[in-house]
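Dear H.,

Thanks for agreeing to be a second pair of eyes. The structure we're designing against is below in token form, covering all 351 positions.
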């Protein structure tokens, strides 16, 4: 399910789960079947990451783990550790459904997702980046009550604060008694009446505001990683509810020097036929400084040269990726008479 070999170690299992979970998380992947695929991936990780559950699965297959409840499967997993201190929403939302946990109190506000593109140099070094976003926050004037300063909302007399009203009537000549419950038309389900609305928010209890926030970018951050900033999402629709969270989805900007592949970087270098035959020395850029690279004699088109440790830092790891140089050989389209003469001699010698 995770695409790892039978003898995969803990790191390989964790890396595979992290990659697939980001790919199939229902908040990101709206394709049909993404939610079920995500659940299967999570369950596979829950089994393979626990030595006892993995042993049962190795010996008895699916029958060995079929008796586990969702709490048994996921209860011991620290998703913040799996995702490098950023749970990407996995600690709540979908996993709350897995654990059968239910929030108490007013509902939480909606989450906000913003995208941040950063240059490869910032990916390599890490540091702070500023993001701007617009959200609905609790009105500072009325503190979310919606009532003008010095006043308070009053309980709706129509529904007595429940937000619901029940109407009764008889049908069929009075033999059938029918009750219908619906939203209170007076308070529109809020349970309170605001007699003097707050001038700042117009009685809604929330105001729209644009904020700037400094986000810490970890070195080597992978494309698509969502950095979670708690409490910076939309305000709750009900008084007393917690605001949602802000998720900053980080991606690396296109770079004319390199193409990124995880922690590795790729670059194409074009050399002449004579340099491919005789060998040469290239000066190529890296993220740190220029480097000299020896191209050996007889280098073939599309050969790949490797510069170890010249890529990006590995995300949440100690290592560093490599820089790969793909060598292209330029074949001249037009030749001078002297060049043609020399190539003819070379062809004669090759025979």
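And this is the sequence the design step returned. I haven't edited it by hand at all.
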């Amino acid at each position: 399910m995770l695409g790892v070999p039978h003898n995969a170690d803990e790191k390989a299992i964790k890396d595979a789960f992290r990659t697939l979970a980001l790919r199939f998380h229902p908040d990101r992947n709206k394709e049909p079947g993404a939610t079920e695929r995500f659940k299967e991936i999570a369950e596979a990780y829950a089994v393979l990451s626990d030595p006892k559950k993995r042993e049962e699965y190795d010996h008895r297959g699916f029958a060995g783990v079929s008796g586990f409840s969702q709490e048994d499967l996921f209860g011991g997993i620290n998703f913040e550790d799996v995702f490098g201190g950023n749970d990407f929403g996995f600690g709540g939302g979908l996993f709350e459904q897995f654990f059968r946990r239910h929030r108490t109190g007013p509902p939480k506000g909606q989450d906000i997702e913003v995208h941040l593109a950063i240059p490869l140099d910032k990916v390599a070094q890490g540091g702070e980046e500023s993001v701007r976003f617009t959200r609905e926050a609790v009105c500072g004037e009325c503190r979310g009550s919606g009532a003008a300063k010095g006043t308070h909302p009053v309980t709706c007399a129509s529904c007595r604060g429940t937000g619901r009203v029940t109407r009764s009537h008889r049908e069929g000549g009075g033999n059938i008694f029918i009750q219908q419950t619906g939203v209170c038309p007076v308070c529109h389900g809020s349970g309170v009446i605001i007699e003097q609305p707050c001038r700042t928010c117009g009685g809604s209890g929330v105001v729209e505001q644009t904020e700037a926030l400094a986000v810490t970018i970890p070195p080597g951050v992978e494309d698509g990683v969502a950095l979670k900033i708690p409490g910076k999402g939309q305000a709750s629709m009900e008084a007393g509810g917690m605001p949602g969270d802000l998720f900053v989805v980080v991606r690396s900007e296109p770079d004319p020097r390199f193409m990124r592949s995880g922690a590795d970087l790729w670059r194409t270098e074009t050399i002449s036929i004579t340099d491919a035959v005789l060998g040469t020395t290239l000066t190529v850029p890296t993220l740190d400084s220029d480097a000299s690279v020896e191209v050996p004699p007889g280098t073939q088109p599309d050969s790949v040269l490797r510069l170890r440790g010249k890529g990006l830092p590995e995300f949440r790891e100690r290592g560093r990726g490599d820089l790969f140089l793909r060598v292209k050989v330029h074949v001249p389209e037009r030749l001078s008479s002297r060049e043609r003469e020399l190539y003819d001699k070379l062809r004669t010698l090759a025979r």
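Two observations from my side: Confidence is low (pLDDT under 50) at residues 85-94, 96-102. The longest helix spans residues 10-24.

Warmly,
E.
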